[in-house]
């Protein structure tokens, strides 16, 4: 199964991607992972991306597209893949169609995780991290520490990352609505989009996603 996962920041794409790829036995292809892997391995694309990022500029679409194209030629994608973070805009979606056409394959579906904007703001702006270990994550509503502002695991101070502030989250949402959301309409015209609610427990969303993908595959 070849899937594109899309949704606003805070929709839980990373968590659902890990669960879906395990259930469907396909690799999780994340643009973030691709950038880190190419840079750490010192590939030509990685060196190019790093040289651009070091100047504070955004990596051009053509570099990201080239990394994805290279990744989709690996043997583990033969039976499918889940793309997370790509395509990020319509130009990348068009490029992906061209790549898949060149490979003689096509997408099976696009899973759209839908979350109300205020829920997204609440999820992200409410996060608190431990200064000693950023893997210790809390939330002012959903996962409160025993003592306010103190990590249960190590006693470290809990803080809010600057990019988790409400102002920053709303800016990220504006970027999503402007740049990424249009790909949903692009794929909807191809009859590929299935939209599900990303509200509820992680298990509930996963069950909803699996059911939607399997129903779409049987259509």
UniProtKB/TrEMBL annotation:
> Known catalysed reaction(s)?
AMP + ATP = 2 ADP
Annotated residues for binding of AMP: 31, 36, 57-59, 85-88, 92, 161, 172
Give the UniProt subcellular location, in the record's own words.
Cytoplasm
**Cited CDD domains:** ADK
The source's superkingdom equals Bacteria
Residue ranges of the Adenylate kinase active site lid domain? Answer: 127-163
Q: What is its EC number?
A: 2.7.4.3
Q: Which residue stretches belong to region NMP?
A: 30-59
Q: Name one GO cellular component term.
A: cytoplasm
Entry-linked InterPro entries = Adenyl_kin_sub, Adenylat/UMP-CMP_kin, Adenylat_kinase_CS, Adenylate_kinase_lid-dom, P-loop_NTPase
The residues listed in the UniProt record as binding ATP, with positions renumbered to this chain, are 10-15, 127, 137-138, 200
| Functional summary from the UniProt entry | Catalyzes the reversible transfer of the terminal phosphate group between ATP and AMP. Plays an important role in cellular energy homeostasis and in adenine nucleotide metabolism.
Q: What is known of its domains?
A: Consists of three domains, a large central CORE domain and two small peripheral domains, NMPbind and LID, which undergo movements during catalysis. The LID domain closes over the site of phosphoryl transfer upon ATP binding. Assembling and dissambling the active center during each catalytic cycle provides an effective means to prevent ATP hydrolysis.
Entry's family note: Belongs to the adenylate kinase family.
Q: How does it assemble?
A: Monomer.
Q: Which HAMAP family match?
A: Adenylate_kinase_Adk
What is the name listed in the Swiss-Prot or TrEMBL entry for this protein?
Adenylate kinase
Source organism per UniProt: Streptacidiphilus jiangxiensis
Gene field: adk
């Amino acid at each position: 199964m070849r899937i594109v996962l899309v949704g606003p920041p805070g929709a839980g794409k990373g968590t659902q991607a890990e669960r879906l790829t395990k259930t469907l036995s396909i690799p999780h292809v994340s643009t973030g992972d691709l950038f880190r892997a190419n840079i750490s391995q010192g590939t030509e694309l990685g060196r190019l991306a790093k040289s651009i990022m070091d100047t504070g500029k955004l990596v051009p679409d053509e570099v990201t597209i080239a990394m994805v194209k290279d990744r989709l030629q690996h043997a583990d994608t033969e039976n499918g893949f889940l793309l997370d973070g790509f395509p990020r805009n319509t130009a990348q979606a068009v490029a992906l169609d061209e790549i898949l056409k060149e490979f003689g394959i096509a997408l099976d579906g696009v899973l759209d995780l839908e979350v109300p904007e205020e829920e997204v703001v609440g999820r992200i702006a409410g996060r608190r991290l431990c200064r000693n270990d950023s893997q210790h994550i809390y939330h002012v509503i959903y996962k409160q520490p025993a003592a306010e502002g103190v990590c249960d695991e190590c006693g470290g101070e809990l803080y809010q990352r600057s990019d988790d502030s409400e102002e920053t989250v709303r800016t990220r949402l504006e970027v999503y609505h402007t740049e990424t959301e249009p790909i949903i309409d692009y794929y909807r015209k191809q009859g590929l989009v299935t939209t599900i609610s990303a509200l509820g427990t992680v298990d509930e969303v996963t069950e909803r996603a699996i059911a939607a993908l399997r129903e779409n595959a049987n259509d």
